[in-house]
Amino acid sequence: MAAGDWQRRAGSSLSRIARVHATLQRWADAGWSGTVVLGWGLLQGCIFPGLADLFFLPLAIARPSRAYRLALLATLGTLVGSVLLYVVGARWLSVLQGPIADWAGVSAAHIEGTRATLAKYGGWAIFASTMTPLSTKLTSIASGAIGVPWPQFVVALFAGRLVRTFGFAWLVRHGGAQAVERWTKPAAP
């Protein structure tokens, strides 16, 4: 590939990035970015697969001054969606303890032992899962189904999601947004 072709392609890519960035800035200024981030967090937390930060990060990069507010809204949306799935999982507990446990040969004593372990360490496992690519949906359903104590589930999930989103917000505020602006500005002749 000739140097001219590479420069033309790089310039075309940068102009696309600049257009996307400008569009995101318009969306962030439209006044509904918080609602979108909260709504997506809720839907992603309980229905749709995908990245929880799909709307939060681009809108935060577009308007870094709103990064922490958007991080809080993303966390709250995910928390509400995850709580709904925890309740669904808790409803399955009777099925897991009854016919499925009998079929799998799991005794009531084993289930109680698992609950005791989760009461002790379940919160840390949930907190750690929020930092990984593991699905929050699966973690929430499993937490309810296995019997992670409710307060422990809510506190661990809220703390983990808050650390994650505020960590991203901090990165946006302290360098990420400036890097995007450097990439989207046309080069000086």
Task: Please give a structural write-up.
This protein has seven helices and no strands. By secondary structure, the chain is mainly alpha-helical. Helix 1 (3-29) packs across helix 7, helix 3 (56-62) packs across helix 7 and helix 4 (67-104) crosses helix 6. The longest helix is centred in the middle third of the chain and has 38 residues, at 67-104. It is elongated and about 60 Å long. The two termini are 23 Å apart.
Keywords:
189 residues, mainly alpha, 7 helices, 0% strand, elongated
- Residue stretches low in confidence (pLDDT < 50, at least 5 long) are none
The shape is: elongated
**Strand fraction:** under 5%
Helix fraction, binned, reads over 70%
Structural class: mainly alpha
- Helix segment tally: 7
Tell me the number of strands: 0
What can be said about the biggest beta sheet?
none
Q: Whole-number average pLDDT?
A: 77
Radius of gyration: 22 Å
Give the N-terminus to C-terminus distance in angstroms.
23 Å
Order of helices and strands: HHHHHHH
Summarize the structure.
This protein has 189 residues and is mainly α. The chain has seven helices and no strands.
Write the layout of secondary structure elements.
Elements: H1 3-29, H2 33-46, H3 56-62, H4 67-104, H5 108-129, H6 136-146, H7 150-184
Helix pairs in contact: 1-3, 1-7, 2-4, 3-4, 3-7, 4-6, 4-7, 5-6, 5-7
